[in-house]
Specification:
The protein is mainly alpha-helical. The protein contains 19 helices and two strands.
Length: about 625
Amino acid sequence: MSDDVLRPMEEREAAAKLTGAWHEGEGILAWLSATGHKTTGRRFVLTSFGFFIAAGVLAVLMRLQLAVPENDLIGPDLYNQIFSVHGTAMMFLFAVPVMQGVAIYLVPLMVGAREIAFPRLAAFALWMLLFGGLLLFVSLLLDMGAEAGWFAYVPLSGPEYSPGKRSDVYAQTITFSEISAIAAAVCLITTILKMRAPGMSLNRMPLFVWASLVTAFMILFAMPSVMMASTFLIMDRLIGTHFFNPAEGGDPLLWQHLFWFFGHPEVYIIFIPALGMVSHIVEAFARRPVFGYVPMVLSLAATAFLGFGLWVHHMFASNVPQLGASFFTAASMMIAIPSGIQIFCWLATLWDGRLVIRTPLLFVFGFIFTFVIGGMTGVMLAAVPLDLQVHDTYFVVAHFHYVLIGGAVLPLFGALYYWIPKVTGRMLDERLGQLNFWLMAIGVNLTFFPMHQLGLEGMTRRVYTYPPEMGWDRLNLIATVGGVLVALSVLLFLFNLLRSLSVGRLAGPDPWGSPGLEWATSSPPPEFNFALPPVVTGRSPLWEAGEEWPVVTGLKLDQREVLITSVLDAEPDHRTEFPEPSIWPFLAAIAVGLTFIGSIFTPWAVVAGSVPVAITLIGWFWPKPGEE
């Protein structure tokens, strides 16, 4: 019998046995216990997207309030809560988690693995994100929403100027989200370094995998800083410490240093994964590998490295020494170089490719246009004299929305149109997708471009209304119309997605003719990803291998056994058995969550909560009979 006949038979037999070993079960208990990376990744994306929609509703309310002068739609106290919760949700509950969710789903498929490393830890990260987000939005409904902005400067967020529990809720929301981010980062780093398919050496890894690896390491170094800051803040408020009280030896600038040491890398933590997404979309629709693979990887690493060296960029209006500020000015300008290198590499790829214009590529074009504008205003803000003039004005609001929407949201929507067929097995409608793009691209620029002029005219951030004689009404009305268009574009995407689930055209394994391993399996992928894990021979496996390629054999089919490979060259090292689905990560997240929420009201909650946390962790790690 020929190999052409044997391979499909072998794969079918393997798949039948693997289905039983990797099935996550049915029912509510199985739903809560699920730990598969595709389940966790989908839930991460859906959860963070839900918070994105909720925060978007708040943004529309803000724009309606500012559409005309002296509007009384929203009062000043509620407006404070709305803009604070909006910013906190977008930065902590959407921008980072949604990128991690995409990575949790795709990275194991891209590297040829059957599962993500530490799947229970990834599930725990999901539940912590969900509970932290619910805390933030429920507190808003109870008139306890955060009120000091997403960066909550002290002393404004301290006990003297923010009585009640609003800033405590903010501080604990930060702790929830950062624990989630760090846990997910650990899973991704281990998967990428130790679970790649044989032959996938570091110089053959897909660019999105490189971007996810760089981002995960950034999270490990950046997130502890803001967790420490939020812990100091709640301790000042709850038990009378004085980390930020200058009268008792503290320093309010300590908050800014701790926060922005996280806060500026946070921007790159958000958009570095988006850069990886863009690379995959560009090569798929240019029909050629991305130009300059090595410079692209080095640019990702350089962006991460420089991102930790310019946090004082946000503190030029404070009393930092002028000589020190000049170094951070230089770093703020230098970081545009690696981003520029990547843009030129994409343009070279498109220029020399055979372009197929589809919705994902349109979002890439929109990303390049919008992100370049945001990058140029970022270089302007790196200059101390200009920064001092426009500090805390709408010019800064316009800049960071151009960077974050252009650098993250537009690529993300392009990636959703590109990879959703792999997740659901159905194609999204192309005409609706193109309408979706134009509504969003026009809406974003209508909303935020006028804010540059508003900032130059002196309109400050975080004001809930303004007098008519200031002359800001026309530009604010244009911005509000743009905000409504953005909201409509998101609703159109949701309609397109729901419609495709029932009547969308079947996608097949590789509807775009893409080169990555994620397209080598069915759509949607089976629970075990690959019946016979592949062996990689190049950077574009599907384009280079032809009809057949080598596969891994010898793994047990009746157990959750996976292959562990070496860090540099992905040479087979050993096999290990992965754990079954478990309810303990969910219970551990409840125990930790109740401890954090209780600590908003009394420090004794930390003591009392240690008992259920310990019980759930013991249950989590308690070995089953037969496990070593």
